[in-house]
Design goal:
- The complex is a heterodimer.
- Chain A is of the alpha+beta class.
- Helices cover 34% and strands 28% of the residues of chain A.
- In chain A, α1 (24-32) packs across α3 (48-60) and α4 (114-127) crosses α6 (168-182).
- Chain A has one domain (8-182): Gcn5-related N-acetyltransferase (GNAT) (Aminopeptidase), CATH 3.40.630.30.
- Chain A is built from six helices and eight strands.
- Chain B has a single domain, classed as ACP-like (Non-ribosomal Peptide Synthetase Peptidyl Carrier Protein, Chain A).
- Helices cover 54% and strands 0% of the residues of chain B.
- Chain B has four helices and no strands.
- The longest helix of chain B has 15 residues, at 35-49.
- The radius of gyration of chain B is 11 Å and the shape is globular.
- Classes of the chains: A alpha+beta, B mainly alpha.
- Chain A binds chain B through residues 13, 72, 109-112, 114, 143, 146, 150, 177-178, 180-187, and chain B through 26-28, 31, 34-36, 38-39, 42, 53-56, 58-59, 62.
C-alpha cells in the first residue's frame, strides 16, 4: 500500500491500523455480514480467494490505503482512502474518496463511528492538502447520508448512487462539535 | 433528582416530546438525536446533574436506558 500513509493513525479515541494479511478473515466476515453487505455496491459474498486477491491488489496500489479501526483494544470496522480523478498516487492527488463501515454490530450507529472519519479527514486536509473529499452512498442508505451531512458533506449528484463532496471550510465548521465530544480526556478504570 | 429531570434534559436537548423519552429510544433512531443533538444532550445532562462525563460515557450513551445506567455511575439516580 502507499508509503505516504502512516501505518497507524490515532485520534478521537480510535487507532487506524494498516490492513495486513492477518486481518483478512476478519474483514471478510464483516464484509459478508448482512448488515454491512446491504449497503455495498455489490452484494455478492466474498470468498477467501477473492479476499486474498483484493489484498494483493491493494498492497501494490499507490492510489489507496486501507485501515482497520481499533477502539478500546477491539477491532470494530474498516475505513479507506482512494484518490479520485487521474492521480495514480496518493501523494499527487488533491481529491480523495473515503469509505467506512463499522463491522462490529455493537458500535453500528454509535457516535464512535465518526472518529475514524475525523482522523482520516484531518489527515487528508492537513497532511495531504486535499482540495475536496468525496463520498458515494446508495440512496437508500439514509444513515450514511445523515452521517456524511453531519460532517459537512453536500450532495453534488444523484444518479443511481448519491455523490457528496466536502471542502475543508465546511468540514472545519461542521465537525467542531464532534471533535469536542470525542477529544475529551478518557478516564481509565482500575480493574 | 428525579426521572423527570432526565426526561426534561432529553426534551430540551433533542426538541422532542416527553412521551418520546422512553428507555428504548436510541441514538440515531430518530432524526432529532443526531451527533449535534447528542452534544447538546451531553451539555444539558452535565448542567442538570452537575457532573462531567468522560468520553467513554459520551460514546456509550446510546439510549435513554443507557443514559440512566451511566448517570448512576456518577451517583445520579434518576428513579
Amino acid at each position: 500500500m502507499d508509503s505516504v500513509m502512516p501505518s497507524r493513525l490515532c485520534g478521537y479515541q480510535v487507532t487506524l491500523i494498516s490492513v495486513t494479511e492477518a486481518h483478512l478473515e476478519q474483514l471478510r466476515a464483516w464484509r459478508n455480514s448482512a448488515h454491512v453487505k446491504q449497503y455495498m455496491l455489490t452484494q455478492d459474498n466474498i470468498t477467501p480467494e477473492q479476499q486474498l486477491a483484493w489484498f494483493a491488489h491493494v498492497s501494490r496500489a499507490t492510489n489507496q490505503h486501507h485501515y482497520l479501526i481499533e477502539y478500546r483494544d477491539r477491532l470494530i470496522g474498516s475505513c479507506n482512502l482512494k484518490t479520485r480523478g487521474n492521480a495514480s498516487h496518493i501523494a499527487q492527488a488533491d481529491h480523495f474518496e473515503l469509505g467506512l463501515y463499522i463491522g462490529d454490530a455493537d458500535y453500528m450507529g454509535n457516535l464512535i463511528a465518526f472518529a475514524p472519519t475525523l482522523v482520516l479527514n484531518d489527515f487528508c486536509f492537513n497532511a495531504l492538502k486535499a482540495a475536496c473529499l468525496h463520498a458515494v452512498v446508495k440512496p437508500e442508505n439514509q444513515a450514511a447520508m445523515r452521517y456524511n451531512q453531519q460532517l459537512g458533506y453536500v450532495v453534488v449528484k444523484s444518479d443511481g448512487v448519491v455523490e457528496l463532496s466536502l471542502t475543508q471550510e465546511r468540514y472545519e465548521g461542521c465537525s467542531k462539535p464532534l471533535k469536542q465530544l470525542l477529544s475529551r480526556q478518557r478516564k481509565t478504570t482500575a480493574q | 433528582m428525579s426521572e423527570s429531570q432526565l426526561t426534561q434534559a432529553f426534551v430540551t436537548a433533542l426538541g422532542i416530546s416527553a412521551e418520546q423519552v422512553t428507555d428504548e429510544l436510541t441514538y440515531n433512531e430518530i432524526d432529532a438525536w443526531d451527533s449535534t443533538a447528542h452534544m447538546i444532550l451531553i451539555a444539558e445532562l452535565e448542567d442538570t446533574f452537575d457532573i462531567m462525563l468522560d468520553t467513554d460515557d459520551i460514546i456509550d450513551m446510546s439510549s435513554v436506558a443507557k443514559a440512566k445506567q451511566i448517570l448512576h455511575k456518577y451517583q445520579v439516580n434518576p428513579e
